[in-house]
Write a structure and sequence with these properties.
By secondary structure, the chain is an alpha+beta fold. It is 41% helix and 27% strand. The strands form 7 sheets. Strands 1, 2, 3, 4, 10 and 11 form a 6-stranded mixed sheet that branches. α7 packs parallel to α17 (593-603). The radius of gyration is 27 Å and the shape is globular. It starts with a strand and ends with a helix. The structure holds adenosine monophosphate (AMP). Adenosine monophosphate (AMP) binds next to α5 and α6.
Length: 611
């Protein structure tokens, strides 16, 4: 009985196993590792998955579907040969096919599968993925975040110890950039960012338009069928340019005829807008994570579009970091899953390897909307991308005069209006009837990696407390496990302020405040205030980092050395500063004509390009 890992991709899916002391990909019946995530139902109502189904996308588009992963967990169904199928059912066909390939290749039964999901997948989408496994008739042992799996692959292949990676996952239609920390036996996704509408198909579009323009035609004016043929040719040209500096394609349609050649340089030039968009999530993730660019050891390339030479060159120029590709960037996640499966089968290892995580969605409550009472706003308490476990709180007040009760609705999501998020539960909190805004409640959310959300409410005037625990039932925790997890949460709920080391800093700062005057005193007041704010954010790693830095500053002040070396704005802006310097340094460092061409194109703003 084997344990396998499945990378259930939007465009292609892969399956891996750990054997012969390493992670190995399992080939399909064509001897290929990539199985297109495409499903077709034929006249005899047989399900065809993979390469053969992909061929039928053009011939019989009505009975063939692809890119359904994007709708995973959403209320959407696809019509195929008269039947309606949800994205998880279509994914189940893919899983089933991969598992059959694995059975055939390994000549043994599959005991468990581990499936990777994007780090930003919310609860509903994760549940839908698990359900896809269940529908396929396999036991889904665990869902692993794709960047964690990619980082694991890099770490194992490169035999590295503690390290921080940037995982750059550039697929057919999405870009996900994550910062992943590997420390001892913990792999943790520290921050994620991305663009859900940027991928290889954007290059295909740009190239298709370029081809038509070169042949004196307008892409928009072609028939749908001709457009899809030109797009296929454009994709071929793009792939050739991942190997060669220059490539060409020929078209022989009634509407467009001729041969067009394209160089890598020209590709960068016509895709300036795509490069410009690519930069944004990179900036964002560096800004959101707890690390500086210098701390990052490598960029792990994931996804088909990371194979593009122009993309990897751009990343290298932009970040000046070594790039890791496990041979083929669209195999990286599967490779990591194979390593994970190996650890899982050797029980002793897996116990050590705890994958900590980030919260892929925000958690919060509804708040009064004066202009539309029936449509309250969503007020996040734990914001998306927070490092787990986390405990944070916020204050809320009454909205009406003499209000006796506050009804708190708890939501998960990132939508502006509460009702557009996922409703998790409700609490009624009694308050004193007083003028609007005068009754105040403190709402604390504590959330851990296992999906247990603890909500604690305290009414300031009466000191009455309320508590509610929301459990992600899909995890199927036993009572004992649940108890254990909840005990862990209770430990976490300790106010960071009450922790001894933080208390020490506060006491020291207050003592120094009392002892000093003038500028030094104001400076210490600033430190107390700032540390307070950092504590209230509840981010343990940040608290520790700041505490260490502040301790040095306070110790110096105590020793009579008035060291004003800590500037909170400087701290907050450090990462931005590095970002700003990227392009400048590129301009200075690169001087050949060819490289300058890249940089000119990359730094050109999209609007300028269009003018
Ligand atoms: P993924 O969603 O990760 O499977 O990525 C699919 C995207 O990668 C599609 O847009 C492909 O055109 C693109 N892709 C795959 N192989 C290559 C290659 N060798 N060079 C450039 N793009 C590629």
């Amino acid at each position: 009985m084997a344990i396998v890992g499945i990378d259930l991709g939007t465009t292609n899916s892969l399956i891996a196993v750990y054997r012969n002391g390493k992670s190995e990909l399992i080939p399909n019946e064509f001897g290929e590792y990539l199985t297109p995530s495409v499903v077709h139902i034929n006249k005899d109502k047989e399900v065809i998955v993979g390469k053969s189904a992909k061929e039928l996308l053009i011939v019989d588009p009505d009975n063939t579907v692809s890119v359904f992963k994007r709708s995973m967990g959403l209320k959407k169904s696809y019509s195929l040969r008269g039947g309606k199928y949800q994205p998880e059912e279509l994914s189940a066909f893919v899983i089933k096919k991969l598992v059959e390939d694995a059975r055939r290749e390994l000549k043994e039964d599959i005991e468990e599968v581990i499936i990777s999901v994007p780090a930003y997948f919310d609860d509903v989408r994760r549940k839908a993925t698990k359900r896809a496994g269940e529908i396929a008739g396999v036991k889904v042992e665990r869902l692993i975040n794709e960047p964690s799996a990619a980082a694991l692959a890099c770490r194992m292949e490169e035999e590295e110890e503690d390290c921080i990676y940037m995982v750059f996952d550039f697929g057919g239609g999405t870009l996900d950039v994550s910062i992943v920390e590997c420390f001892d036996n913990v792999i943790s996704v520290n921050a994620v960012s991305g663009d859900n509408h940027l991928g290889g198909s954007d290059f295909d579009d740009v190239i298709a338009k370029y081809i038509c323009k070169e042949l004196g035609k307008e892409y928009k004016k072609l028939s749908k069928q001709d457009q899809s043929i030109v797009l296929r040719k454009a994709e071929q040209l793009k792939k050739k340019l991942s190997v060669d500096r220059e490539a060409e394609i020929s078209l022989d349609l009634d509407a467009v005829k001729g041969t067009v050649s394209l160089t890598q340089e020209k590709l960068v030039e016509i895709s300036a807008k795509i490069f410009s968009r690519m930069k944004k999530p990179i900036r964002q993730v560096l800004n959101d994570c707890e690390f500086r660019l210098e701390d990052i050891s490598k960029i792990v390339l994931v996804g088909g579009s990371s194979k593009m030479t122009v993309v990897s060159m751009y990343l290298y120029y932009l970040l000046q970091k070594d790039l890791f590709t496990s041979g083929d960037s669209d195999e990286t996640v599967a490779l990591g899953l194979g390593y994970y499966a190996g650890m899982k089968s050797r029980n002793e290892d897996i116990r050590d390897l705890v994958m900590t995580d980030i919260c892929p969605f925000s958690l919060g409550v509804d708040t009064h909307n004066e202009s539309d009472i029936a449509n309250p706003y969503f007020s996040p308490i734990i914001s998306r991308n927070s490092v787990l476990p986390i405990s944070k709180w916020d204050y809320y007040t009454t909205a009406h005069n003499n209000q006796r009760e506050i009804e708190l609705n708890i939501y998960q999501g990132d939508e502006y209006y509460a009702k557009n998020n996922i409703h998790l539960g409700k609490m009624s909190v009694k308050v004193k009837p007083r003028p609007a805004g005068e009754e105040k409640i403190k709402v604390r959310f504590t959330y851990d990696i296992n999906g247990i959300l603890d909500v604690d409410v305290e009414v300031e005037s009466t000191r009455m407390t309320y508590q509610k625990t929301i459990v992600n039932k899909e995890l199927g925790l036993s009572d004992k496990e649940l108890q254990k997890q909840m005990e862990k949460l209770t430990e976490l709920k300790k106010d960071p302020k009450s922790k001894e080391e933080n208390q020490y800093l506060i006491t020291l700062a207050n003592a120094l405040y009392r002892e000093t005057s003038g500028d030094v005193r104001n400076y210490i007041a600033g430190i107390i205030d700032y540390f307070d704010r950092v504590l209230s954010e509840g981010n343990e790693a940040k608290i520790e980092h700041i505490r260490k830095r502040l301790m040095v500053v306070l110790s110096n002040i105590e020793a009579g050395l008035f060291d004003f070396s800590f500037d909170e704005r400087e701290y907050e802006e450090e990462e931005y500063e590095e970002e700003r310097m990227f392009i400048d340094s590129l301009r200075e460092e690169l001087d050949t004509d060819e490289e300058q061409l890249y940089i000119r194109s990359l730094t050109k703003e999209p609007d300028e390009e269009e003018k």
